[in-house]
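step=encode ok
step=design start
structure_in=
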């Protein structure tokens, strides 16, 4: 089996980047995350964002009244 040394470096860099990204996103328990847990966190993030936007709109409305 001949080794292609030109493709080994980009492949190893890609693998390392994927591992670093997974470690950053999921932490030490990256194998224990479920789709339901991720969906719940995404929904909670959307709710927090909506509340912050509503607060900004309310705050900007107060000086005009």
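sequence_out=
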């Amino acid at each position: 089996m001949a080794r292609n040394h030109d493709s080994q470096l980009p492949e190893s860099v890609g693998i390392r980047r994927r591992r670093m990204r997974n470690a950053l996103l999921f932490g030490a328990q990256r194998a224990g995350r479920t789709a339901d847990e991720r969906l719940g966190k995404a929904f909670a993030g959307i709710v927090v964002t909506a509340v912050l936007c509503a607060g900004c709109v309310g705050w900007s409305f107060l000086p005009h009244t």
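step=design ok
step=annotate ok -> The radius of gyration is 22 Å.
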